[in-house]
Amino acid sequence: MLKTLDNALDLLKHFTREKPQWGVRELAKEMNISHTVVYRMLATFERYGFVKQEPKTKKYELGFSFLEYASTVKDNLDITELIYPVMKRVAEATNESVFLTWLDGLEGICLEIAESRQQVKYAMSIGSRTLLYAGASNKVIMAYLPASTQSAIIEKGLRPRTEHTIHDKEKLLQDLARIREDGWAYSVGEYTDTVFGIAVPLFSGDRQVVASLTIAGPDYRMPEQKVPEALRELRTAQQEVQAILQRIF
């Protein structure tokens, strides 16, 4: 019974922003289980509105039931209402978007966005899941995780997101050590081509990393000489958000 539940939840995690649709046999091959089992799980999820089948391609994608749960979760996350004004101030000061990325298992999840007023900006949706080994917002979290958790992330595979993604284990560990020593992370084009990220970690009251705060946008708007100024804004916000988190956790 627990194995069936594990498989069902693992199946849902395969529906991502990068791969929103799956065919039954394609998904069965990816999960290395019987296509009959995959079909039964999809049929059950479809009955409850968690997935739907696209009529033309016959492939499955996430259904509208998740919107109800997403809305419920966001309504209960009063923490984002407290943090958003701080993020908005940084977005206005830097003219770039600011993201709150939360640690969820071995992944990051975007909880809140304060968008830039610029016409050209880095677009990401609230609820998007991200790989912890690529990009400043993710690596600044991974850098503060226990070695055993870092190993678990690496063992899942370091698949390149772009040509700038570090997918060599030793180089990644060296980069994480440097980030931890510096206390912040900077990347260009690691998760999305031509996008920069400047990120700082956020901790719970017991000093466990729980999230990150990131300024991100097109790389041409953030030459190296502008990074220190943006980082100062982010550091100030980090202290304010940290105070909020320590009252809650």
From TrEMBL:
Domain IclR-ED: 65-247
Entry keyword set: DNA-binding, Transcription, Transcription regulation
Single biological process term from Gene Ontology: negative regulation of DNA-templated transcription
PROSITE patterns, alphabetized: HTH_ICLR (PS51077), ICLR_ED (PS51078)
SMART domains: HTH_ICLR (SM00346)
Superkingdom as given in the UniProt entry: Bacteria
Example of a GO MF term: DNA-binding transcription factor activity
HTH iclR-type domain mapped to chain residues: 2-64
A Pfam family assignment: IclR_C
Name by which UniProt lists this protein: IclR family transcriptional regulator
Organism from which the protein derives: Brevibacillus borstelensis AK1
Lineage: Bacteria, Bacillati, Bacillota, Bacilli, Bacillales
